Amino acid sequence: MADCVGTRQRRSRLGCEWKKVSGFDRRVWRRRRRPHKSERRQGRAKTDGNTLALKAQLARELSRITFERWAKENPQSAIRNPQWGKVIFSNSGFEAVESALKTALLATGKRGVIAFEGGYHGLGYGALNATHREHFRRPFRPQLRAFGHFLPFPIAANVNSRTAPDLRRLTSAATEIFHREKIGAILVEPVQARGGINVPPPEFLPLLRKLCDAHDALLILDEIYTGFGRTGKWFACEHSGVIPDLICLGKALTGGFPLSACVGRADVMDAAWPASTGEAIHTSTFLGHPVGCAMALAQIQEIQRLKLCERSAVLGKFLLGELNRIRNPQSAIRISARGLGLMVGIELNLPNGKPATSIALAAIKKLLHRGYIFLPEGEYANVISFTPPLTISKAQLAKAVAELKKVLTTD
Ligand SMILES: Cc1ncc(COP(=O)(O)O)c(C=O)c1O
Questions:
Q1: How many whole angstroms from 156 Cα to the centroid of ligand 1?
Q2: What tens digit of pLDDT does each residue of 303-323 get?
């Protein structure tokens, strides 16, 4: 069973529709000639189908591909009953994160959140409290209510420009925060995206799951970037078999329409959001827009039909192999590639280990002139990221790598 949180609909006798959107009435002006009785019966089904039914169908589908599937695939897992999800829809990714933060506060009664250095969760005032980079936070600090505590994000040991993470140190730092503050949630990207395509070691998410269980906190996974096959699985948490309490989805959910979702384990959502007795305390005018819901349903079908998760895993391995071969004998620039599935970054550093920001930005500009869009990521904008559509062909990928290689080694 899946549910949308807090939407209802009713119809006036005058042929215009009233939509009860979580606590207040919003009239959808659709005046028309009063239809014949038989038309009315049919039309009602159609209109309702086009609005709330699509939203409910998508909520059902999101539960199916997350908590229901995880429970089925991991019968031994610690996932608690009930094994299905409930959904809060929003428009932007940051709003899905804020829905998760609100859910964690309401469900646990604890305000604090542990997040990670380099983490990016969006720029709304709630999400900004958990987004790490000073560039985004500093101008607004006077209005931020600091409830986020940042811990170092461990980066897998094979990234040659950095040292291996010490998960024991991370555990003790987190435990110290749990003892000092009331922490209701850990919020994390399974692979940091805008932080520089940072892949943590496989023990990282299981460790966070353990910490949350030990301290009665919720594990919120921000899979807005990594979700829907980007890393070679439906969701990046599946690489380590960790099941979150709440998962935030956006971006590829629709592949182009502003729709996002916070999917939570049903008991957590019910604890946080009991039935509204008046005006809903969390809503938004356009949440769960039917066009977006239809796009998301089609998108999920296409990912299944074209086996895009598997494709992302295979092409990602090929891409990483190609990028790892790029060397520039004429230059002392240090080039290192990393990634998971079709979420890959190539980091450029100077011989002294400092970020080669201007070289990375110049390369991206040159590539743009050649018809390739790459983005700089990471605190120092020295990571060139590859996050192509999952439908890209191997030949197209190879051509993009060849161009990047030319720009980095000969231009
Ligand atoms: C991991 C992650 N979370 C949240 C967001 C914010 O999403 P939006 O820009 O749709 O608000 C982003 C956007 O890049 C993201 O990468």
A1: 23
A2: 999 999 999 999 999 999 999
